[in-house]
Design a protein that fits this description.
Blueprint: E1 3-4, H1 12-23, H2 25-32, H3 38-53, H4 59-80, H5 91-113, H6 116-129, E2 135-136, H7 142-184
Antiparallel strand pairs: 1-2
Length: 198
C-alpha cells in the first residue's frame, strides 16, 4: 500500500522542491548526481539541429549533418564539461542524453508554439500533482501519467507542425531564389522563321 511521505512539510522550500522534482525530474536528477555535461550537450544538440534545419539542404544532407553536428557537440560537451568524451560510449549515459534532449526540446516547443491547448495541459499537469505532494508510491502516478502523456502527444504534434513550417520556409526561399535567377537571365533570342519557297 502507498504510505504517507512526510505528511507535515517542514517548510515551503521543501514543497517547492517536491513540485520541481515532479515537473522536471530529469534535470534535477542529473544535476543532483553531478552529471552537468548532459545539459549543455542537449542544448547545443538542439541548437545545431535547428541551425542545420534552416539551411537549404535536401532531406538526406539535413539528416547527415544534423547527426554529425549533434554527435560532435555531445562529444565536446562530454570532454569539456564531463571530463571524458568516452561517456557517450556508455549506453546509460547516451540514454540520459536522449532523455534530456527530449525534455529540453519539449520545453522549447512549448515556449515557441504558443498553443493554448499545450499551456492548458501544462497547467493540468501542475494541478494533478498537488494532491500527491505528501505521498510517494506508483499508485499515485496514474493520473499524472495520463496528463503527461496527453501533454507529450500535443508537444509532439506541435513539434511536427513547427518542422513542417520550417520546411515550408526553406521551400519558399528556394522558390524565390529560382524565380530571381530566372528573372535575371536574358530572354532567349527569337527564332527566325525559315524562308518560304514560294
Amino acid at each position: 500500500l502507498p504510505v504517507a511521505w512526510n505528511p507535515h512539510f517542514k517548510s515551503l522550500p521543501q514543497v517547492l522542491l517536491k513540485i520541481l522534482w515532479y515537473l522536471n525530474e530529469p534535470l534535477l536528477k542529473f544535476v543532483g548526481a553531478g552529471e552537468y555535461w548532459i545539459i549543455p550537450a542537449a542544448v547545443t544538440t538542439l541548437g545545431i539541429a535547428y541551425l542545420i534545419g534552416r539551411r537549404r539542404l535536401d532531406a538526406t544532407s539535413t539528416a547527415v549533418w544534423t547527426i554529425l553536428g549533434s554527435l560532435l557537440a555531445a562529444l565536446l560537451s562530454a570532454q569539456l564539461v564531463g571530463g571524458n568524451f568516452a561517456r557517450l560510449m556508455v549506453a546509460e549515459e547516451l540514454a540520459r542524453l536522449g532523455l534530456m534532449i527530449l525534455f529540453v526540446g519539449g520545453a522549447v516547443v512549448l515556449l515557441a508554439a504558443r498553443s493554448r491547448l499545450a499551456w492548458t495541459l501544462t497547467g493540468l499537469v501542475v494541478a494533478v500533482h498537488l494532491p500527491i505532494l505528501h505521498v510517494i508510491g506508483p499508485h499515485y502516478l496514474y493520473w499524472p501519467a495520463a496528463f503527461w502523456g496527453a501533454l507529450n502527444a500535443v508537444l509532439l504534434m506541435l513539434a511536427y507542425d513547427q518542422w513542417r513550417a520550417l520546411r515550408g520556409y526553406r521551400q519558399g526561399i528556394a522558390e524565390a531564389v529560382a524565380i530571381n535567377s530566372c528573372a535575371e537571365q536574358p530572354p532567349p533570342p527569337a527564332a527566325e522563321s525559315p524562308p518560304s519557297l514560294g
